[in-house]
Amino acid sequence: MKKSEIKIEVSLDENHIPEQIEWSATDSQNNGAVNASFLSVWDPESKNALRIDLWTKEFTVDEMKIFTYQNIMTMADTFEKATGLREEAQDMRDFGKYMGETLGVIQKPKESGSLPDPK
Questions:
Q1: Which backbone phi and psi does 30 adopt, to 5 degrees?
Q2: Tens digits of per-residue pLDDT, 86-107?
Q3: Pairing relation of β-strands 18-25 and 32-34?
Q4: For 79-115, b where at least 16 C-beta lie within 10 A, e where not — what string?
Q5: Contact yes or no for 11/47 (Cβ under 8 A)
Q6: How far is the C-alpha of 72 from the C-alpha of 18, rounded, in Å?
Q7: pTM for the structure as a whole
Q8: Would you give the distance in Å from CA 89 to the centre of its chain?
Q9: Which of 64, 61, 62, 11 is nearest to 37 (CA)?
Q10: Of 20, 16, 61, which is closest to residue 8 (Cα–Cα)?
Q11: pLDDT tens, position by position, 30-86
C-alpha cells in the first residue's frame, strides 16, 4: 500500500495567533507558505466533520471572501464527483455564485434587455 504524508506547520505569535503557515505533501509539488487553510476530516465513529481553520494575521478580509467563494465552488465539484448528485451540486454552485456576488468577489451578470445606466 502506498502512503502519502501531508504536513501543516503553524508558527504562532505570543497570543497563539498564526503568523506563518507552511504545508507539504510527499506526493505534491505545491508545497510552501500559505496564508489560510480549511481542513475538514470525517470521523466515522461520531459521524461528525472535524475541522481546522487557520489564517495568518496578514490574510485580509478581501482574500477571505475570495478564499471562501472558491472553497464553496470546489466543495460543490467534490460533492458531485463523490455522490453523482448533479442537481444538488448545482444548488451549491448557485449558492456560491450568490455569495460571490454578494461579497463582491464576482460580478453580477447584466440583465439582458435592461436599459443602460444613465450617467
A1: -95, 50
A2: 999 999 999 999 999 999 999 9
A3: antiparallel
A4: bbeeeeeeeebeebbeebbebbeeeebbeeeeeeeee
A5: no
A6: 23
A7: 0.83
A8: 16
A9: 64
A10: 20
A11: 899 999 999 999 999 999 999 999 999 999 999 999 999 999 999 999 999 999 999
